[in-house]
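Batch queue: ligand-bound targets. Current item pairs a single chain with C2E. No template structures supplied; prediction is de novo from sequence plus SMILES. Inputs echoed for audit trail.
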Amino acid sequence: MKKGHKKSIIALLTGILVFVTGSLILLYFAGQKLAATISEDATHLVKHIDTALQERRRILTPLNNLGFKQCDQATLLEMRRALFDAKYVIDIGFFKNDQLVCTTGAGLLDKVINDKSPDYIIVDENIRVRFEPQLYLLLFSDRPMEVIIVRQGDYNLIIDTKVFNDDVISSPMWEVVYKHKRSINHLAGQSGVYDTLVNNVYLPYERRLICSEQNSNYCVALHMPWNKFFAKNHFLLIISLILTCLAGVSSALLVDNLIADRRSTFNRIRLGLNKNSFYWTYQPIICLQTGTVIGCEVLARFKDKYGTLYPDQFIPLLRKNNLTWKFTEAMIAKVLKELTAIDILPEGFKVSLNIFPCDVEQGNVSSLTQVSELTNSRFIICLEITEDEYLDTSIAHAHFRTLVKSGFNLSLDDFGTGYSNLKNLQNLSFHQLKIDRTFVQDIATEGLKASMIPNIMELVKKFNYTCVAEGIETSEQEAILKTAGVHYGQGWKYGRPMKVNKFHEYMAKQSV
Ligand SMILES: Nc1nc2c(ncn2[C@@H]2O[C@@H]3COP(=O)(O)O[C@H]4[C@@H](O)[C@H](n5cnc6c(=O)[nH]c(N)nc65)O[C@@H]4COP(=O)(O)O[C@H]3[C@H]2O)c(=O)[nH]1
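Prediction returned. Tokens below.
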């Protein structure tokens, strides 16, 4: 699979994962909200039950204790007093010989009414309860009412189930029941809900069954289906879904960027410095008069799992991110180890190391005088420094002098290309000028730069430098440079930059 495709798939999968996780979290919180809503409704209904039970006790027990044996004005007065504070009870009746003889609403009845058999009896309190879905109360005989009729002793009371059904309850299905052993008696709400909720399987959170703590036979069952819940909260849900989608998309983009960042040249270089992804190659330097190899230039390369990088890709980034000295230290350690191990390299073999001008200015180069492997090396260590304004300061000059005192050779690299303002060339303590390969390449076309080579050689002679020409590819270039008096040459004509083992082989062939 192509790397780009792999990256997109990882980003896509992350986006999907975030979306799914976000949706699950959303669902979890929605579930919590749904459970909380049903619980609130349930608590509300149970509170109604408890208050109705208290009211029942508060009315029936004192009335029975009064001991009236028939309904007269005094009886009615007590009954009406009891009703006065009631919230749930809408009527109280008096019984004589199991026949209703008077009620608070209708007073003394013209015609007595026989009591009906109850739905259930609470034996220990001698309470008989009946649910009446359509009772025509004597006072409001024009409209039927859904009521619970509770009788104890000589009195009964009528509770309007409407009071349970207030606006606070948002669950669309609910029921209040009296549960005794296996029988379930409907009291309020929608008949059959309790039974259905107990005997069927439901999604989590969407149903609730609880009983009163005062009397555990009174229970409520509520049902709020998820779709109804979502319909009620659709605005919030849409917003949350949009946010989850956005989170999915942004994390996909983020991962895409992170992967891109990981593969960015800078990140590869940063990690590569610690993971030894840099390696160094060696390009021979030849004495143009004798043709012998007198030294080599050390040139960096980079290779990691994403491929190879060349100096024009990593050198500017090392500079920009202040990693030049870390890089140079790594180079020196590795190169010294590799070259010292090649025993055929003679005493005085010249090893040219590229040094960043900024490390001269910052004084990092001075620490090289403390590296005994460098100062005691059997090689001549030549530090190649590109022409740069950094070198044109008194601090830089002082550092150069320190380096020279410790035995280092200094070479002015890419001479004639960059900053060509160096005022006091003779004060720089340099040993060598390196003619840039653009000058050498110009020889074939007899260009302007090629015509400047004699002038460069005059400077070389004047300041008693040695001179290296880089980028020699042809015998014609070699011959002209040799005639011009250039001492050393470097270029593909003699050998490309090579890894240490190849360089070893190359040097072995030279000494045969
Ligand atoms: N066309 C052509 N090119 C030739 C020929 N002979 C040599 N070259 C190339 O010319 C460049 C010479 O190195 P430079 O001027 O020091 O220029 C170097 C040097 O300034 C810098 N560099 C390379 N390695 C290091 C390092 O380890 N440290 C530092 N500070 N700079 C380095 O990167 C620059 C480029 O390095 P490279 O890409 O290796 O490019 C090298 C080398 O491969 C030739 O005959 N024809």
